[in-house]
Design a protein that fits this description.
The structure holds two protein chains of two kinds. Chain A is mainly alpha-helical. Chain A has a single domain, classed as ABC transporter involved in vitamin B12 uptake, BtuC, CATH 1.10.3470.10. Chain A is built from eleven helices and no strands. Chain B is an alpha/beta fold. Chain B contains nine helices and eleven strands. Classes of the chains: A mainly alpha, B alpha/beta.
C-alpha cells in the first residue's frame, strides 16, 4: 500500500495536520506567525546543509531552525532592536545565505519549487516514519508543557507568580516549532508551513468558544485540508503545498459564515 | 525552610532598579500565615513593584526576597488578556491549577459570580472580571494571597463584602495576605500590619501606629490620619450578591 505515492502523501499529511493543529493555536494566541515564518525561511539553509553533507533533511532542518530560534532569543536580550526587526533580519538573511549556498552547489540538481511549495512525489517511507515518530513526540511534549505555556499565554505574570516556570515552557515550545517545520518541510514547502499552522487554527477560532474546542477544530480543519488538498493535487496535478493551503483557506471562508451568524445574534 | 514556620515571604532591603531609576528601594517586610499585610502609598510609590518582588516575578533585584511557599494566588492590578483567546470563566479558573468542579463553584459563589461561569471572559464588565480574578486566586486554597487592588471597579456594597470575604479567607484558610489598596476605610478594619510606601518604606506598623506617624500625615494629610485611627466599626454580617445580609 505504501508503494502508492498518493497514500504515502496522505499518511504523511495527516500526521502533520494532527501536530500543526494544536501548535497553530499557540502560534495565533501568542502572535508568533512571523516567528514561524522566520524558522521556515531558515529551513532552506538546513536543506542545503543536508544535501551538502548527505544528511537527513528533517534532522538538519531541525538543527538549523532551533539554532536560529536560540540566536533570536540571544539577540533579543543583547540588542535594543524590536522583535519584528530581528525576525526580519534572521528570516531574510538565512534565506539569502541558503540561496547563496545553493548557488555554490552546482553539482546537485535542486528542485527549488519543491522546496518552496512542497512535493508529494518526494514523500518516502522514511519521511512517513519521521513524521509519525516526531509528530506524536511533539504532541506529548506539548501536552506536558500545556499548563505553563497556556497560563503564560493568557498572562505571563500570573503564571510566573504562581510558580509555573513560563520561561522554560516558552523555550521548549520554540524547539517544538522547529520540530514541526523540520518534519513538514518536504510535504508543505518552506514558504507555506506557517499557513498550515495559522489557517486551520484561525478557522477554528471563528467557531470555538473554549481553548480545547479550538484545538480540536484546528486539528479537524487541518486533516480536512490535507485530504481535500491532496485530492485536488492528484486531480489537477497542482503542487501539494499550495493545494492544501488553498483547501484550508476554503474552510476558513466557510467558518466566516458561522461568525457572521453569531455577530448577528449579538446585535 | 525559614526558621519560623509561619513566615511565607520575607523581603530584606529589597529594591528594583530599571534603567538607573529606582522603582522601589529598601523594602523590608514579612508576611506570615493568617496575617494581612497592607501596602499603602500614592501612585507610583512602588506598591505593585513590591508585590511583584515578593512574588518572585522580577529576577534581578537588589537586596533579598525569599518566598517559602509555592501555593500562591495572585490578583494583579493590571491584567491584559488577549481577547483573541476563546476563554470562558470556567477555563480561566483552572488556568494555573486543575481544580475540582466543586472548588470552582464554591469560589465563584463566594465572590458572587457563579452565574457567569460559562460566559466568555471578554464579555464581563470590569467589576465582574475583578470578582472572577479574586475567585480564581482563592479557589486553589493558597498559602499566600497577593491582592493588588482586588476590588477596583466593584460596586460599593460589593467592595465591602469582598473585603469581608478577604478577611474571612485569611482566618479560615490561615493564609497570609499581601494587600494593596487605596481605600483606607475598608482596608484598615482587617489589616494586621500596614506598610506605607513612597519609593521606600516611609513608615510601618499597626494601622493605629501608622496613623499617628508624621510621615504618613505628611503624605496623606491630616484627614486620612483621622480615618485610620477612628476606624473601629467591624461587620458582623456578610452582604450576598443580591444585596441580602447574612449573619456570620
Amino acid at each position: 500500500m505504501l508503494d502508492d505515492f498518493f497514500i504515502r502523501a496522505l499518511i504523511a499529511g495527516l500526521g502533520i495536520a494532527i501536530v500543526t493543529g494544536p501548535l497553530g493555536c499557540f502560534v495565533i494566541w501568542r502572535r508568533l506567525s512571523y516567528f514561524g515564518d522566520t524558522l521556515a525561511h531558515s529551513a532552506l539553509l538546513g536543506v542545503t546543509l543536508a544535501y551538502t553533507l548527505e544528511f537527513n533533511i528533517a534532522i538538519s532542518v531541525f538543527i538549523i531552525s532551533s539554532s536560529i530560534a536560540l540566536i533570536l532569543i540571544d539577540l533579543q536580550k543583547r540588542t535594543n532592536l524590536p522583535g519584528d526587526a530581528l525576525l526580519g533580519l534572521l528570516a531574510h538573511s538565512s534565506l539569502a545565505v541558503g540561496l547563496v549556498v545553493i548557488g555554490f552547489l552546482t553539482f546537485i540538481r535542486f528542485d527549488i519549487m519543491g522546496l518552496l511549495f512542497g512535493d508529494i512525489l518526494a514523500v518516502t517511507t522514511d519521511d512517513i516514519f519521521i513524521i509519525w515518530i516526531g509528530g506524536p513526540l511533539i504532541l506529548i511534549i506539548l501536552k506536558l508543557i500545556w499548563k505553563p505555556l497556556f497560563a503564560s499565554t493568557v498572562n505571563y505574570e500570573l503564571a510566573e507568580a504562581e510558580g509555573l516556570n513560563p520561561d522554560r515552557a516558552k523555550a521548549i515550545f520554540t524547539i517544538l516549532m522547529a520540530g514541526i517545520i523540520a518534519i513538514s518541510i518536504k510535504m508543505v514547502g518552506l514558504l507555506l508551513i506557517t499557513g498550515m499552522l495559522i489557517i486551520p487554527a484561525a478557522m477554528a477560532r471563528n467557531i470555538s468558544s473554549s481553548p480545547q474546542m479550538m484545538v480540536i477544530y484546528s486539528v479537524i480543519g487541518g486533516l480536512l485540508s490535507v485530504i481535500l488538498g491532496l485530492l485536488t493535487s492528484l486531480e489537477f496535478n497542482t503542487a501539494s503545498g499550495p493545494s492544501i493551503i488553498a483547501a484550508a483557506l476554503f474552510l476558513f471562508i466557510l467558518s466566516l459564515l458561522k461568525i457572521k451568524q453569531s455577530i448577528k445574534l449579538k446585535n | 525552610m525559614s526558621l519560623n514556620q509561619n513566615i511565607l515571604v520575607k523581603l530584606k532591603q529589597a529594591g528594583l532598579r530599571i534603567n538607573n531609576k529606582w522603582l522601589v528601594k529598601d523594602v523590608s517586610l514579612q508576611i506570615e500565615k493568617g496575617k494581612i499585610v497592607t501596602l499603602i502609598g500614592p501612585n507610583g510609590s512602588g506598591k505593585s513593584t513590591t508585590a511583584k518582588i515578593a512574588l518572585g516575578i522580577y529576577k534581578k533585584i537588589n537586596g533579598e526576597a525569599k518566598k517559602y511557599t509555592n501555593k500562591v494566588g495572585y490578583v494583579p492590578q493590571k491584567i491584559s488578556i488577549d481577547w483573541t483567546l476563546p476563554l470562558r470563566v470556567s477555563d480561566f479558573m483552572v488556568l494555573t491549577e486543575n481544580l475540582k468542579e466543586e472548588a470552582i463553584n464554591d469560589a465563584l459563589s463566594l465572590t458572587g459570580v457563579i452565574h457567569l461561569k460559562d460566559k466568555n471572559l471578554g464579555d464581563l464588565s470590569g467589576g465582574e472580571f475583578q470578582r472572577v480574578l479574586l475567585a480564581r486566586a482563592i479557589s486553589k486554597n493558597p498559602e499566600l494571597l497577593v491582592l493588588d487592588e482586588p476590588v477596583q471597579g466593584v460596586d460599593f456594597t460589593g467592595e465591602i463584602a469582598l473585603y469581608e470575604l478577604i478577611k474571612k479567607i485569611s482566618d479560615e484558610l490561615n493564609c497570609g495576605i499581601l494587600l494593596i489598596s487605596h481605600d483606607l476605610h475598608t482596608v484598615m478594619s482587617a489589616t494586621d500590619h500596614v506598610v506605607c510606601l513612597n519609593g521606600h518604606v516611609c513608615c510601618s506598623g499597626s494601622p493605629i501606629e501608622v496613623a499617628k506617624n508624621n510621615e504618613y500625615k505628611a503624605l496623606f494629610g491630616e484627614q486620612a490620619s483621622q480615618i485610620l485611627s477612628r476606624y473601629e466599626h467591624r461587620h458582623d454580617h456578610i452582604h450576598t450578591n443580591e444585596g441580602k445580609i447574612k449573619k456570620n
